[in-house]
Amino acid sequence: MPEIKVTPLGAGQDVGRSCILVSIAGKNVMLDCGMHMGYNDDRRFPDFSYITQNGRLTDFLDCVIISHFHLDHCGALPYFSEMVGYDGPIYMTHPTKAICPILLEDYRKITVDKKGETNFFTSQMIKDCMKKVVAVHLHQTVQVDEELEIKAYYAGHVLGAAMFQIKVGCESVVYTGDYNMTPDRHLGAAWIDKCRPDLLISESTYATTIRDSKRCRERDFLKKVHETVERGGKVLIPVFALGRAQELCILLETFWERMNLKAPIYFSTGLTEKANHYYKLFITWTNQKIRKTFVQRNMFEFKHIKAFDRAFADNPGPMVVFATPGMLHAGQSLQIFRKWAGNEKNMVIMPGYCVQGTVGHKILSGQRKLEMEGRQILEVKMQVEYMSFSAHADAKGIMQLIRQAEPRNVLLVHGEAKKMEFLKQKIEQEFHVSCFMPANGETTTILTNPCIPVDISLGLLKRETAIGPVPDAKKPKLMHGTLLMKDNSFRLVSPEQALKELGLAEHQLRFTCRVHIQDPRKEHETVLRVYNHLKG
Amino acid sequence: MTRECAALLPGVCAALADPRQPGLDDTCLEKLLDWFRSLTWFDQTVELVQDNPCLTELLTSVLALPDPSPSILSFTLQLAGILASSESRFQHLQQEKLLGRLFGQEGPRGSAAWEDASVRSAWVKGVHSMVHHQPALHFLCSTGSMEVIFTLQGDPSLFVASAASQLLVHMLTFSLESETTKALSTKDCDWPVCAQMIVKHIEESLQSGSASHIEQSLKLLSSLFGSCFGSCYAAWTEVLWLDIAKQIESFLLEETVQAQPVLANLLLNVARSPVFCSTEGNFWTLVTSALEHLTPVQAGPLAVGLLKLCKCPQDVRIQALTVLLQPMDCILRAASQPLECAGLLDESVSDPVAVESLLSSKTSCAGLLCQTLAHLEKLLSLKHLRVDLPCVSLLHSLMTILQFCNGFLSPASPLGSTISRNLINCFRVQKSALDVLAALSEKKDCDTLLGSLFDVLLAYLQSPNTNPTVLKKTFQATSKWLVHLQELSSSNSQWQQTEKILEDVFVVLQKRLCSPCWEVRDSSLEFLTAMTKCLRDQKEFRQCLLSSEVLRLTENLLEDPESYVRASAVTAVGHLALITCFAPEPPVIGNQYNKESIVAKLQEILSTDSEGFPRRAVISIFTKWLREGCTGQLADTEQFVSRVIQTVEHDLDWEVRLGGLELVEIFCSQTTCQLAQCPYAPVSSAVTSSTPQNELLRVFCRTKLFGFLFGSLCDCDKPVGQRACDVLVGLRAHFYPMSNLENPQEIEDSPAGRGVAWLQRTLRQGSLAQNFTMDGGDGVDFQDPESMMLALGAIDLLELHDELNKSSDHMEESPQSLLQDILAAVGTIEDNEVDCY
After folding, report:
1. What is the pTM assigned to this prediction?
2. Chain A, 11-50: which have a CB under 8 Å from a chain B CB?
3. What is the predicted ipTM?
4. Dihedral over alpha carbons A221, A225, A227, A232 (to 10 degrees)
5. Domain architecture of chain A: domains with CATH
6. Which residues of A touch B160 (CB under 8 A)?
7. Torsion A490-A492-A495-A501 (CA) sign
């Protein structure tokens, strides 16, 4: 029996970083190549030595597919291609290819800045890696080689995020990457056709959660920012270069416009222009509302948000500043935080999660006295708020996607074991398909139905077409014929043709059988009843 | 352990053992284990567990939990293993009866938790940490643990299986190393119990007939021999090998077991071990027979490994090389007419039909060639290869492959036409072949084929079908061969051929610089820069360059929409300017750059480009120009540097600011050399007199570099501050070679002194300093030589230097910070709040 094998090197019962190996019909594909931001040593990258113990990676892997630009999905890519030595094809969508290097560069700068690290990829490596990337369009079938083909579907989540169908012959796997089944302020909902894959590999971050409306979180966010600014405080929002930052910018921009607010909003490191550029370039990837209004008013041309200058942090009066990096590791956001932390009127809003060891992590866990470098103690009096804006499908959304794609098996990744266990049972109960949740390093093997191509004779095809309704790809119909197995090939022909080709005569077999019927009625009445019954 | 950590530890242990607490971030637990590893590494005493009873209490409490979470159980197993790594702590834990309950039969081995791969993995890691003394080995042998480890070699989790195999290697070597006192000539009852158990297991597995068991044991043996580098292992490795050699031979010859790649790896690792460095003996016969029996794909890695060995019989080497060259030979033969080319090899090692059939099949052809080419590239990179490579034939063969791939060669022979069909448009093979081609340019004797080689390369450069990544590799190979061609034409005066090739290259380069694909434009610019760097002194190159449109096209790309391309264009223009603008004898004919206009354009990019890459490229080109003395006389240079400083000091990209500091550093050292006759001459404290030192100070002040340097000390990005401080320390050493400023406490008496005192106060605030004005508005006048002289003398730059170099990792790296984070996280994380991007 043919089989599909899946081995997560990352995202197997965790959310640290994604890297999943799939073997399908003799082809080996790596899905995502993420970095774990919680480590500062080799552990931040997946252990690629498990991919092949003998032989080169490039010979073993047929391609690498990146689902979206978040670092936990693409952060190890330059390391993998430029330092470990993978030299084969890499696929991602156009927006991901454009935005990925910005985030990688952003992270490289922080890493090198903070640690003076040398064992990390360089700017040149990021560029060299990106030059190897083949960008794909949505719904475009890309032929990796003669047998392996891939196709991208819209995944929501972030700009350019895609789900990928991987197909070899009649076996197929769909990998969702991270996806969102409800549209948000700038992106649409994930969508896939009824492709009935042998296996659906789905993320399961919010496997047990039915998330509250994002609108509530947005209202809450605006309220907090507004209140702080009204009482003359400053608001710091540490963000990563691209992604959530733009969503929050649209939110604030619209609110400022509506409320006619005057307090300045700044965005550090000149990223607004760049973001603008990409969102304009990839306007087709945004949601309907943004696309519709684009001609009258471009959502990404911000009237109220200005570029930040380092000297502005000391200006008196209220202001809102978006600054990188997002976890308050180093650089500008940390500098502003240190300047503003002592004033209780100010506020810092963390719009994403922070790894252990960062200032962001510390203040979110409630620590208010921080020992900074040089052993100075920084007392945090400003308000600290955490708001999750991450856009993942919740339990309802995951079930919805399964209903949409109708897979034969489901495999859960990118989630916590306990929550996966719950969702696994639910999926198995509701859809009667097997659901797997391998840990990192564990291989799941899925048996698939063998698929044997058969040629059909033209005569039979014509005859069948003449009988039934017009052929329709969406309504498969049964067809009867005789299967000829000759010279290593299979053909379906009409019985008459089969007889002719094989030089055989037709025999008719008549089957009779004797049935005892006990019926009190008269014989001819009984016969009539049986006759009518059979006729009916 | 610091006092602070010791105080925090009990709380952390209690929290970890509390089942009501939600799960901690896995990275915290991993980092906690790292800390314990570092604590126990240097300290073998029992004090750690005695002084911190909370540690054993943690182990006890977790064992008492009815259903501990897999993550906390895994942590506990690993922690116990780390603590038990020294004999004294092991005994302590034994007295507490903890180790048996964790690693013995009554531990998690028999419970439902064992289903979880992380628990099994942690158990293996715990045992591995523990095996550093004999009592641990005895403990494991007597508690049935060995059987568990043997079983775990076949674990469904790759991580567990691999860890178990590594553990057995560690146990066997440790056991033989530490438990025996005499030389182990034969395998008998003198061998320690643990070693005997492992070897017996290996022998039984090899004879079991079970494919999976055999493969596991072969892998184990392979890692075992792979880890044996020291001569102390020699005796027992030889004994072990003799014990299994027959079995291995039978696997190889009878082919009953499908584990050939593992067998090849095992033979290679045995060949690397010191025992078999003698070139005599049965072992090498076995290796030879392996090269004959394994398929070309399986034999390749073995062959290349053998060729890298220092000690290996020469006939084995030649045989290994033959194995590697067989596919290349087959390509040559397939491409040639009958009776025309004799191929590459006189005889083959294995059946040439095997190679032919692999190359004839669509599915295996590319795979075999890519593997062979990768091996050849590796061989070409070796400094000392102990066999001669037939470089000319190899080059011929590579050219044939490349021509098969782009359809330029369709041979008449049936094999040739099949191979060429298989290879057409195969990017993988093209890339590998071009890599080898580039590596081959270092070798001599290929000169006769140069003309046709460039035909092949130019065909790739010209073809619109060439894939961008293939094109990049073609450019790389071309630039390497161009250097070779240039060297050759200098010696044999064949200028015409060189000129013709260069002309063709420039024609295609012009086309490629206009490609709609940014990757192609970028690779073309990188190629142009590489060529310019190597060939800028060559007349033919300069002529072809100046008569082409390349200069103009490159200049146009300074405005490319793609920032990567703009950056590459900046670098290319910077290097081309060295020929057209800054050469000692600027060219009189052909297209040229206007010096002022180019400098202005780059300056414009530095001040206005929205992306960091082009700005970084400009600052590094400016630095290169300055270093090469292209910026003119001192007055011009002064102006140039001053302008650059004013542009970069406000740049948002810290690497641009850092580049600016590098430029300043070079400027300082160059100016110092120019102005100061004797750098060690004493300096008068009165800066009004016109000594070279005072002139130097005035130049620096006019250039406004002090404002930039002192301002950078308060930069929010640390590397900038550190670099600025380095430069200032250097300047201070120059202006105050012998001592510090006299009476620094009296500096506030003058206006300059008051300014410097303000500067001192501001610098103390570090990156929190408010509005550090570069123009001296507030306190100090950075352009006043007297103030700056005073500042250099009065400010304790060395202390500042130490301060800036202090690790900023305290928060991310220190155990105290980690313990605080764990304590703070306890109770604050709600179940659903685990988040990610």
Report:
1. 0.89
2. 14-16, 36, 38-40, 43, 50
3. 0.90
4. 170
5. 3-210+391-439 (3.60.15.10), 214-386 (3.40.50.10890), 452-535 (no CATH)
6. 441
7. negative
